[in-house]
């Protein structure tokens, strides 16, 4: 007798997940042993400041009146989340993160391909590419502020169609372009180094087999190289996105938050250091921490990397 419910064919049923292999369990135990001491040390160093910030965020606390501290619970968080300035700085932060990471991913991958294929002076080339990343961020910010200057900078000279007296720091849009350009220039080498490590894991036999089968360079890139680099790309994007989301130095040096170019980190700095509002500043730092966790979670879920298959585990 028919029950009115059609059973799915066997081939459409989801195959049960195989149990972890001995190798996977051994690597998990080794990873725990290696990471546990570092995690314990980090918790020892960072736990108190984090808990202290969480505690202070529950008070209306100003350094100008340290004895007049009142418990307001989640009041500071409500103030921040209902303030338009907070969401404006969040939008700035997200835009800087997305734009810079995308540009760094494309340019860094091109650099990684060149470094992977080069034969002569390989060490010299890799070292030269990493020079911008070795420069202190504040120094880099001052250098790019000088480069975009409308009086003696070189950017206007190499872009004559915008005029030699064009002021990049007069408007919001152009100020953000200058900030993001400085960020891309400095951190693209780091991205290329991580992607280079991923390229080294791509099997040359697979590339040769695809070439013999008549695959073009673009087909080999999309069907062989990039799929086998997914884990490395995820790590590179994750590291750079989290770093870009906490951007502070370039904004502090190049615009000091003028023209609405503030980030969440810079807004937190202004509340605590300039306005002495320790309560709301602590709440902003906690929100920044939570948003960083959200960004990391989204990136990991977006890539959906199976680390066991990335290790080519049998």
Describe this structure in words.
With 314 residues, this protein is mostly helical. It has a single domain (35-310), classed as MetI-like fold, CATH 1.10.3720.10. Helices cover 68% and strands 1% of the residues. It contains 15 helices and 2 strands. It has helices at residues 22-56, 75-81, 84-117, 122-129, 131-134, 137-147, 155-158, 172-199, 204-212, 217-228, 230-245, 249-254, 264-274, 278-303, 307-310; strands spanning 59-60, 70-71. α2 crosses α14 (278-303), α6 (137-147) crosses α8 and α11 runs antiparallel to α14 (278-303). It starts with 21 loop residues before the first helix and ends with a helix. The model is unreliable at 1-5 (pLDDT under 50).
Q: What's this model, at a glance?
A:
By secondary structure, this protein is mainly alpha-helical. The protein is built from 15 helices and two strands. The chain has helices at 22-56, 75-81, 84-117, 122-129, 131-134, 137-147, 155-158, 172-199, 204-212, 217-228, 230-245, 249-254, 264-274, 278-303, 307-310, and strands spanning 59-60, 70-71.
